Amino acid sequence: MAEKRLVKNGKKLGVIGGMGSAASAEFLRILAANAPAFVDQEHPVVYMIADSDLPDRSTAILGK
Question: What is the pLDDT of residues 18-57, one digit of tens each?
Fold first, then answer.
């Protein structure tokens, strides 16, 4: 069976965190596990912002 490889298409993944640093780390772990690479340069390009000053999304959803 052929090994699965990521084919870069020039797209970038942007992620805005805010669920906590552990959730961000888990997301990146899952992303790396599901986007296999034989060399570092084959990993997807990811821009991640984990800013604890972002407003709470529950407050925004509930309109408070």
Answer: 667 888 888 889 988 888 788 888 888 888 887 777 777 7
CB atoms within 10 A of CB 43: 14
Q: Which residues, 6 or more positions from 14, have their beta carbon under 8 angstroms from its beta carbon?
A: 46, 47, 48
**18 class by beta-carbon count within 10 Å (0-12 exposed, 13-18 middle, 19+ buried):** middle
Assigned token pair, 45: 């390009």
For position 1, what pLDDT does the model report? 55
